[in-house]
Every structure is written in C-alpha cells, then in structure tokens.
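re: ur question from the group chat, yeah i did fold both. here u go
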Amino acid sequence: MITTDVEGRVVLVNQVAEQLTGWHQDEAVGRPLSTVFHSIDARTRRRRVNPAIRLLSQGRVANVRRNTLLVCRNGGEWNIAYSGAPIRDGRGRIIGSVLVFRDETESQRLEQEVLKSQKLEALGVLAGGIAHDFNNILTAIVGNIALASYSLGQDPATPAAPLLEQAAVACQRAKKLVQQLLTFSRGGSPVRKSAAIGEVIRETAEFLLLGSRITCRYHFADDLWMADIDADQISQVIQNLVLNAKQAMGDGGEIDIGCRNIEVGEDSGPPLRPGGYIEVTVTDRGSGIPPERLPRIFDPYFTTKEDGSGLGLAVVHSIIRKHDGHIEVRSTVGAGTTFRFFVPAAGNGAAEPAAPAPRPAAGAGRVLIMDDDAMVGPVVHGVLSYLGYATTLVDDGRAAVDQYLTARESGAPYDAVILDLTVPGGMGGDEAVRQLLHHDPRVRVLAATGNGRDPILGNYREHGFAGVLIKPFHPDELVEALQKLVS
C-alpha cells in the first residue's frame, strides 16, 4: 500500500510496498508517486499514467487493473494487480489517495503452467491417437515385408532382397519417430526388459550426430551388465542429452559418453535402492550452465533457448525416475557440463554381442487373434499361418471370448491368445482378458497395442496379461513372444 497527499506525493509506504518497489519509507516520502510506483503495461511495455493523478482528478475508486508490471528500483519487474481510491476527510474533501497492489508473479506463473499442462495433455491425447493408427499401418507394412522376404527365400542374390531390407530399416526409423512423439508428450510407464544399454546409446548418438561436426568418444566397461530398461525411452534420454551437448558445442568438438557397473549399498551416495546399476555419463565441452540455473534445470518449461519448450530435460528426469533410477548434473561455466544417470541392471552378467536375428522357426499350436484393424489382423494371421500355427482371427473382444469358450468346449482349446487393447466401439483387450481369466485362469494372453502411452503396459501382469507386443512389431518379435508364452 502507498498513500499520497493531494498533490500526488508519497506520504506512506508500507513494508510490503518497500520490498516490491525497492524504496524505503524514508526515501520515498515527498517524491511523486510515479517515481516510487513505476508501472508499465505488460503487453505494450508502455508506461502507465500516474494512478494518483487519475484518482485525484476524477475523485472516484479505480477498479483492479491487471497486466501491469511494477518496475523495481533495481530494474527488476513484478507482475501486479492494483486498485486505488481517493482519501476524503470528514467533510468529504479529497486530501490524498491510496494505492493498493499485490504481487501476482507466482500466481500468473502457476496459471501459465496449468495452461501449458492442459495443452500438453491435449497434445498427448492427440499423439496417442495418431500413434495408434500410424503404428497399426506400420505393423501391416512390416509384416508384409517379412512375408515377402519369406516367400523369396534366403538367397541374398535375389534383386528384391536389399530393397525389402531397406524398407524394413525405414519402418524401424518411423517407429522411433512415433516413440519420440509419445515420450515428448509424457509417454506412459516404461515397458522394461533386459537390454544392452551400450548398443542403445551408440546407435542413438551416432544417428543423431550424423553429418555434424560433433563426434562421440565412448568409454564403456568391457563387462558392462545388461540393463533393465525400456530401450525406446532410454534412447529418448540419450537423444535429449546428446542434442543439448551438440547445441552447447556449436563449433564442433567431442562428446564423451561413459558406462560402467556400480553396486549401490545402504550408505552409498546416489539416492537409490541397494542393488546393481549402470552409471551413464554424457559430458560436453561447451559453454556450461550458470550456477543459479542448475537447480531449475529439470523444471518443466524452464529453458534458456529462444525456441525451446523447456520439456526436454523434464522428460529425461521423468523417464529416469520411472525406471527407479536417478539423474544429476554438474557444470562449470566455460568448461562444459556432465549429466550422470543411473538405471537398474538386469543382472550381473555381461552383455553379449547381439547376434543376427534368425528366421523364425516353424511353430506349432493354436492361436486366437483379436484385432479390429483390417490390415493388422490379416498380417498377423498370415505370418503365423505361414510359420505353421493354426490361427483364428476375430475383430472384437466379445467375439474372442465366445470363440475361446467354443474351442475349449469342442476339445480343441487355444494355446495362446493375442488381444488388441483398443477396439473403438467394442470390447477391448483389457475387458476381454478379465472375462477369459474368469472362465479359464490358466489362459495365456498377449496384449497388443499401438499406443505406447497405454498405462496397462507398465504393469501388464496385474491386468492378467502374460506379455506385451507394442506395434509395430516384427514377426520375429511376435514368434519369440509366442514361444515364451507356450513354453
């Protein structure tokens, strides 16, 4: 609160006004209000008219005004809302004015974050829908490419073989692009399995730096353990960290990426549960991060880039936390930055080099497939039939339950069931598996989905599924999942 006399000169400045304006009572008394209360329009950056003049000349209460910036004595700015009124004596004569204002900087920031959060959630819903449809299309493409390859045989001299291989590689890149979109828009819980994290890191970093003046040096332990991770989400972590490092070293240079095994005990430094972890470090030699910015580096929407969204490192932090890991950063201005994160190890055995994927072995058994997509269902049916499985295809969860019960009663039960989680206008996989388990607690069901944000993926066993297939999946992955299911 600030009060003025009839000439618009400051008479009183209370303690809060002192803090916001930077003017103490002794310094402010007698000065024009416009000197102490220096306000500008938040949208146009133009100085507002001295409110005391308006109050004194018009003799009436001024309603609350927002979109105002109070410029502090030291040059700082506060978002405020203010109102005022003339002060009258016992005879009704105006003897001064009073101006009341409050700091709305934090409340406006929170409002903006809520708005951004709502927009992000809307983007996530949109991305999930697009990804679901796009992944169904990719599943059909990948499956048909595989069927074409099977029909051509294994002769590498076949002219079509390299073309089909290139098409399959392009599909995998498209799959990663969709995964990036889902993770960027706050993807769901990770689907974790044992993976060679060194291969994930190397493949991601080299793809991102292709054609740039930045190179990577890798420092991987020879006995590096397998990691218990969602490889696609950890790839997104590496993409964000390497991209930040690349931008920090615009003139070129080297990024150091290290991996080593560590055992975390009860009194170890990182805030982690005891057990085996893989420590990953990403170090650049860029401009560094000022100390005052480090505490906020993982805050949503905090960015120092003009065209940045402030979401990259927030997503990184979220992914590592969902992996029961930990991430931290150290930086020196002018010397560079190091990000260090930890993810759980899948076991203490060293990762084996990846072997070329063999052609799926012939299968045996009866498989019930439920998928409402007119392209995906027939491809899955065709691949499994080609490999020797006896399959039945239905397009709805209710039909799947009826078909499963009919087959069991006839003495020819199904060995496995594949259920699509999302069926618009019909029974999806989540409800169908509950009904199947009610009738047969021993039923073995795979969940299939093109929406990587589906919350079921993170804890599919609690929903009654024995495994998951995330579209687009290669026939090799499909057969491997089936073999595990019926073994």
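okk and heres the other one u asked abt
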Amino acid sequence: MKKYRWILLGLIASIGIAITCYFWATNLMASLYAYRSPFSSQPLAGGLPANQPVARQVVAIVVDGLRVDTAADVSIMPFLNELRQQGASAVVHSGLPSYSAPSWSVLVTGAWPDISDGPAMNPTDLESYYSWTQDNIYASAKRAGLSSALAGHDYFKFLVPSDDLTEAAFTQEETDPADQKNAAAAVRFIQSGKYQYVYVHLLQVDYAGHYEGGPIDPHWNAAATRVDALIKQVVGSLDLSKDTVLIYSDHGQIKAGGHGGQDPDVMIQPFIMVGAGIKPGEYGDIKQV
C-alpha cells in the first residue's frame, strides 16, 4: 500500500507542477502582450531639428523575414546585390522577441521595445494594435516640415499615428499580388515628388517562410526573387544621384520556417543603403536600434 501511496502522491505532485507551469507560462505571455513602456503616458521629447538634407527623397524598403544568406545570394536576388556593390552594407543584429511588430517599432523609433512603446509581441488581431506614442521617423519628418508616405499592410494603419503620416496605401494580404500593389503605390508616391520619405513593406518572403515550407523550400527562393524584381521596380523610379534608398529586414527565419526566439538565423538581418550621401563599403555588424 505504501508503494501505491507514493506513486499516487508523485502523480498528484506531477499534475500540480504541470498546472503551475501552465499558469506561469500563460501569465508570462499575457504580461508580454499587455506590456506598455513606462513612457507611454508621458512620451519622451522628440529629437533635435535636422541639418540640411543630403537627399531629395529617402525610400525605405522593408523585406519582411529576409535572411542574410538569401539577401547575399546573387542567383536569388541579383539586383539587390548590384545595389550592395554600389552602396553601403552591414549585418543588423536585432533583439528579443524576434517578431515583426517589436522590430518595426525599433526600426522607426530607434529604441528597444521596453522604451519604444511598440507592441512587445505580435498582437493577436488588428484590433489589438495601437499607435506609437514615442517619437518616430514619421513624427520627425512632420516636425521638419517634410511629407511622408507608406505602402504596406494594414498593420501600419494602426501603428503609425495618423496625424504623422501624410499619405498611405494599405493592403490586407501577405502575398505576391499584395506586394505588387505596395511596390506600385511606392512608385506613384516617388514619382509624384510630393514626399521626402517613402516606406514600402514587402511581405511575401515572410509568408513563404511561415506557410510554404520555410527557407529550405524552393517557394522561399522564388518569393525572394520576385521581391528582388519589385525592389528593382521601386529603385528604378529614383535618381540615386539625388535620392537615397535603404533596404533591410525586421527579423530572419529558421530554416524550417518561423521566428520569435533567439535562434542565430532570426537575430540577424541584411542592411543595404545606396544613393545620395552614402559612402560605399562594408560596415560589418550594427545594432537594429
């Protein structure tokens, strides 16, 4: 009987530990989803006024989920590598968690998630997104009397304070047709000459990573090659003697597809900048912030 009693006690203890771990993990995740910066109710002051511009237009192209090795593969992304040879390049090191929304916030605010007041996790639905309260590149442009435009997913409709953004074109999918619409909108914004900062977000590489087999599947390379053509389309509308383009990612993808943890492949991203004001060369490692 003693033997069975100890087995029963062990079973009860195991169940108790499992329940405790479940609630601990659930509460931990809930706290991340609910996290807000200590500066959310009292935003930090904006930066100092900018000096004279070195470029007529600045265009930022964000290729969601793009890996460093994919971006460096000439057979997959030939045009991107042409730009790399002409401009400045580096390897970006991002922070945790390696999700899109926190990284987007870092890239436009210049602050890590504990300060930026961007979502600390990818919100579970669009209604859970909220606008950045801290200074960001769109607010900086507005203070400088400049105009900005954005072509990307609906996520940004909720993240970017509407008063800071001059014009936008939003899509609701993460596929090649959606990326084509975003690239076409970016070209319209650029050719209009009305906007000094244009941001375009391309998502199909990340989609291939999540839903089409990951970077080890041929769908991944095909998506990256299509994006390379869209980058060429956008850059083709610029005059790189007067304009500047930045191309980077928010996170990488593990080979089987996915991200969010601290796997080395997801914590580094490509960065290429070319055009007016840029000193060409390889600049090694830089922090995403």
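fwiw on the second one: Residues 205 and 223 are 5 Å apart (CA to CA). The mean pLDDT is 90. idk if thats what u expected
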